[in-house]
Amino acid sequence: MEAKGIAIFPTDVAFNKKTNAFFTELEDQFLKGEVGKSTIKLDFEYYILYSQFLQIDRESLFFGRNYKLVFCFLFYYRALLNKNNTQKIVAKIINAMRCQERLPEKIHYREKIICMDNQHRTLSQILSSCIVEFYNSIDLYNTFKKNIGFENRKKIAIEMLNRASEHYGFFGLNRGGITYKEEKISFVPVQALNEFHHGMSHLCEVFLKEDARYTNLERAIPHFKRGMMEVYKTIIRDFLILNQDALGVKQEALKIRELEYQTIGKPETVTKNPTTNLTSKKEEKVIPGYKELCERIVKQSKNTNQMI
Is the per-residue pLDDT at 253 higher than 60? Predict the structure, then answer.
């Protein structure tokens, strides 16, 4: 099939009235549901837009990753999974990306039907399960943050800032001079956003590149696993900041952490079937161990917004 291209952003344009008119027209099309109904599937729209974000991201890392955009893409993908309306969030992403110093180039791709054999279908099922669990871990984290209340969230934020200042030694922290503010959005740890971002970069390869290899499916899986582990570890860390005498929780977390260390690296036996190399018996216990511990922590915090 002939290579096609979609210019979500025109190449090498300046910010002028014509450019703004283009974006306004594009946003109107999204709001009316006119984009993607003919030749481009909704999933392709997501990966095309994310690939263009990757272009910007590679050049902007010197100044720091745009985590607000990663955050938007995270909830855009969830909306797709839940089959919710995505028009507003797509318009928001487009508006944010057009404000960058450099606009991304046109994406060329070959529209293709992805046919999988049993081996790759199994990989896809594992990946789908990991993504769902990743979002579930974020839900658990937000429940915990809601349960502990504003003052405890403030205490955690100040403690983490204090630890950073002690570690890097850049400045002495004046706790009395700190003003803590919150936005009315969900909480997602930065490490989890990074893992989501890296996982999506592999999926963009699968969906948009003609010569993409299905090894990218396999490579995406560990990122979502690490992402959910980062969320669980953050729940445990925050709980222990508020409950320094909770030795039982600390000891249980250390046991799971030790088991996690034992799974780092390549499996002892590598088979021809990649799906059998994704987890070891020890690794199978790590994420469920963190999850079970965090569920107990969240349950314990359910009926109080004071110190747990």
Answer: yes
